[in-house]
User: What shape does this take?
Amino acid sequence: MQAKDSKENENLIWTEKYRPREFNDIIGHAEIVKRARAFVQSRNMPNLLFSGPPGSGKTTLALIIAKTLFREAWHENFLELNASDERGIDVIRQKVKSFARTKAFSGPFKIIFLDESDALTKEAQQALRRTMEMFTNTCRFILSCNTSSKIIDPIQSRCSIFRFKLLEKKDVAKIVEKIAKEEKLKITQRALESLYDISKGDLRRVINILQASASVTKEIDENTIYEIIAEAKPSDVKHILELALEGSFLDAREKLLEVMLKQGLGGIDIIKAIQREIWDLNIREEEKIRLVEKCGETEFRLVEGSDDFIQLEALLASFILAKRQATV
Ligand SMILES: Nc1ncnc2c1ncn2[C@@H]1O[C@H](COP(=O)(O)OP(=O)(O)OP(=O)(O)O)[C@@H](O)[C@H]1O
Ligand SMILES: [Mg+2]
Assistant: This one.
């Protein structure tokens, strides 16, 4: 069931559907790909530090490294964590410890991917450095960050640094053209230019805006793009919750997807917005408190790396249940 759901979501969300699956699919970043490939071929690699702007392909490259190294067993050998988890470095250390306890199978070591490493305080980074050292025999770390200057020197010096640059216009165009071909879209040159201007090379944003535009029309010009951008409003979140409370799960789900794509919001952003809106909803106080608690649980799962959309769907379902229980 789970597998089927995530397959469906893959087709639903284009950033997943078109996420490069192997080194050859990665557009641009020629030097970076060459270095990563060499590590994988020698089946040996140091700890890595990926630094660069959002949506430039850091997570994608980490996944490709793991999938090429471990093949079918990549799931068992790859742990993805997010450092902006407010629960802090202790939780990270605990998770690393239990993951590193068993030996890697079908690979020389296990890989721990730590997203948003620059969200860690200096003290937390010191603790991280000690953890990295503790597990050098069994694990390799791939740390991802937007700004490498926020990473303490002792970590930088223990990592091979990969600097991701913003993708150039011609590379962005390549990806847009590929998707347009697959999805049978017509995109004007001006639309392509505005996509690039708005996103500044952030491919996640490019692809999300493209998907939202395509849900309106298959012939996309610059007006389509600007209308899509302008339409995104925070009050949309309230609308999603109202739909869920009315029991229209499918409508709520569809609206949720639309908002995530249009506003380029991640699961955590949506949860925060939902939490704010709960207090204004027309339900009993006890229900509000329960729902806020539910949001907390969902947030925890998201931070642990669960699929954003599946978790938010489950949260919507609990809004429907809350309303039903309130009316019986
Ligand atoms: N170089 C690339 N070639 C092709 N597609 C790409 C590339 N980089 C990113 N993408 C597309 O953009 C999406 C976002 O990329 P990814 O998640 O790897 O970004 P990121 O660098 O990890 O961003 P963040 O810093 O926000 O975590 C991917 O799902 C993929 O579809
Ligand atoms: Mg990422």
